Amino acid sequence: MDTDTGETAAAAASPGRVMGKDGMAALVDILAGRGYTVVGPTARDGAIVLAELESADQLPYGWGVEAEAGRYRLRERPDGAAFANAAGPQSWKTFLHPPRVRQWSADRVGEETVFSADLTRPPRWAFLGVRSCDLRAIAVQDRVLVGGAHRDAVYEGRRSGAFVVAVECTEPAGTCFCVSMGTGPAAGPGYDLVLTEVVDDDGHRFWIRSGSAEGDEILAELPARPADRATREAARAGVAAAAERMGRTMPETDLRQLMAGTLDAPRWDDVAGRCLTCGNCTMVCPTCFCTTTEDVTDLTGDHAERWRVWDSCFDLDFSYLHGGPVRASTRSRYRQWMTHKLGTWYDQFGSSGCVGCGRCIVWCPVGIDITEEAAALHDWSRSRPSEEGA
User: Fold this and answer.
1) What is the dihedral of CA 37, 90, 25, 237, to 10 degrees?
2) Each residue of 315-356: pLDDT tens digit?
3) What number of CA atoms fall less than 13 Å from residue 278's CA on the CB side?
4) What is the C-alpha to C-alpha distance for residues 37 and 126, in angstroms, rounded to an integer?
5) Each residue of 56-68: pLDDT tens digit?
6) Rounded CA gap, 56 and 51, in Å?
7) Residue (of 286, 221, 172, 273) closest to 28 by Cα position
8) Is residue 85 included in any domain, yes or no?
9) Using an 8 Å Cβ cutoff, are 272 and 334 in contact?
10) Can you give the pTM of this predicted structure?
11) Is the domain of 23 the same as that of 169?
12) Which of 231, 250, 282 is nearest to 183 (CA)?
């Protein structure tokens, strides 16, 4: 199990710069001026959601969150921080691997049928406020969707040219466990700019560093000053304190081996008795990538479209083969999701499929907790030898 929570070498080597809220406003304007569609967090409908930003004023200044298993609430913060809130229900997957994509359309023209590929050009995205867990999730999806022999053209078109502004986490939720997964709270590689928010007696400011050539260019345009030692130390201390305040932890064991060695554990029956197989966990997960296709026609029958849509391994028909589904029971479907996420993902893609964001815990309507389930399986695996020898 990884436990690295330190800064990346690039960030540590650069002293960076310090800017105030005016710098954040300028950052949004500069990105928009370069032709990017800026997306970032904002408070709306009782949650921190990702949306297109016209200005930095739309950032969730003064809002935090309270998150627990099956529960999520916004709360006001007295300090006016913009990024002191844990991951909301959306991830950047919504924009890079969208829930619905039209693949082609067909029209009947006389006696012929004319097919047209959907060549809609995606925006040039600039993602502002990408947390460390989500930064790793983007890297995971890069490996899954464009890192192998079969490349996803939709993802590749949306991902290429995307500008990423990461934010280091200083306020984890009660459901966060990025330290257990080695994905935070400090930002890993993959960003163009990274910032750490500091709010203390010396004011409200952002320590910002670059991770790419374009990041260097934009950093030079911002109204910022050289980073002072006090701000750097306060920023590092805030991230280090966040690492000590994780609301959840995974058991300290090899999760890949744990999943492989507990396939017959009775705990799977226990969780199956609670699971609704609603698929919420897969919808909010920043790395789940499964899709299916839907064909639709208009009422005349002269126009048809094929759409690619998100799918879930909790769907009974997800594993349907001739004669019926392979995984007909709730037990088998939950076990498939968890063992793939924490175990066999390594076999396919060389890493874990879990980044410790905690979304699956928060947005499960019955509060099933993946860290609790992993701990229960770990306890069972440790007790089994003594039981067999009794």
Assistant:
1) -140
2) 999 998 988 889 999 999 999 999 999 999 999 999 999 999
3) 13
4) 6
5) 999 999 999 999 9
6) 12
7) 221
8) yes
9) yes
10) 0.92
11) yes
12) 250
